[in-house]
Amino acid sequence: MQKTLNVLMLSAGLLTAPLVMASTDTPTETLYQQHCASCHGSDRLGGMGPALLPENLSRLKQSQAEAAIREGRPATQMLGFADTLSDESITALADYIYQPPAQEPAWDKREIVGSHLLPHPSGSLPDTPAYSADMMNLFLVVEIGDHHVTLLDGDSMEPIHRFASRYALHGGPKYSPDGRYVYFGSRDGWITKYDLYNLKVVAEVRSGINMRNIAVSADGKHVLAANYLPHTLVLFDADNLDLLEIIPVENDAGESSRVSAVYAAPPRNSFIAALKDIPQAWEITVENNQARLRKMQTDTWLDDFFFDPDYEHLIGAARDGKHGLVINLDTGETTAELPLPGMPHLGSGITWDYNGSRVMATPHFRTGAVSIIDMDSWKVIKTLETAGPGFFMRSHENSRYAWVDVFFGPNKDKVHVIDKQTLEIVKTLQPEPGKVAAHVEFDREGKKLLLSIWDEDGAVIVYDADTLEEEKRIPMNKPSGKYNVWNKINYEEGTSH
What we know:
Layout: H1 2-11, H2 28-35, H3 37-40, H4 62-71, H5 87-97, H6 109-115, E1 138-143, E2 148-153, E3 158-164, E4 174-175, E5 181-185, E6 190-195, E7 200-206, E8 210-216, E9 222-229, E10 232-237, E11 243-248, E12 259-265, E13 270-275, E14 280-287, E15 290-297, E16 302-307, E17 313-318, E18 323-328, E19 334-339, E20 350-354, E21 357-363, E22 369-374, E23 379-385, E24 393-394, E25 401-405, E26 415-419, E27 424-429, E28 437-442, E29 448-453, E30 458-464, E31 470-476, E32 479-484, H7 485-489
Helix pairs in contact: 2-5, 4-5
């Protein structure tokens, strides 16, 4: 921001006049251009700093935005403006960035291609790891407190490397099929390809202004980005993140939609996307670097979704938050409706074998419950009452237990352990009273697991998966998701896909 430039110029002796308090009658847009545009872009689409548009700020309260303007953000280049701007000006700026721009911003081929960064083209770096570790038992831990990622050795549970990420990573990172590369997606639309062998960013591109998530094809050749703004799916070549195709997301009548989510469906050699504003799900198959679309009409708008193990069915959460739908991906027909009040978080659903049949389980955003569903009859066979609404649920094929947090509400510092054969909560842990405990990920063998203390003065806690005893704590800055290479590339039944 301009204040940062002024400070640098002062220190260099290039600016001698003192910084003055901005007048409260300065038009807000002028205030923005003077103090914010150098980092966040004159059009608010982002630059060194994130985009400042209502859609991109949806998870930040306006009071929090005011505090960030006034006090700055630790461990970032965002300095506070309390000594430069009046309280009225700070409030006006916060009001301004929560208003939509006069014209909807565009992000098309010119902008995407212009954003492309390629510091290390495919094939230019060594093909052997620069360090010694089981490359299949690595974890990536996303630290949202200061926008970094820690690479963790899953055998020793010791950090190997820590590197800066783009602002506000969203959706789980996706690995290449061999586990060498990881692809991150940010809410601001940036896709980052990172080489885990050489510990370097090798390519970046910005697919949109507000992105939901990304998916990597089963063969590792393509990356597909799902955008909220603009209403597009964007296809890239996975090697260097070269743009292949921009797919407008609209129905036959020309009505457009945000994309709720997109995931790879490996047995089908395709991607599946659910639309947020049009009652459709799409299957996208890539042939000769071009997308072929198959549009399936659904009975309602879908939010997040989940697959059965054979990828024959999509299980989607209806946007009304009161039920789920089961869609046969071969026919496109809705085959069952699930009574799931409380907004199920199906993107966090897991499955396991129970009494000779396959069941799936999901926490709920708005209700303190876990629903367990028979995947043959599509009946809810049990609803477990929990200490509050949950966000994440995890397990492992080799573990007897499933873990679920109670992320929302007064008991957010607790986590439940469920016996997958008795379908009962057998233990409730409170690892750090008063601090959110959330998101479990197992190692490749299912012997150890990691749990986040979701706080700037937080940690990743290592547990023994059998005894449920804590083994160690690794200090981290608001660690959120943790992602094991083996579990992700093998689509382990206890982790998100």
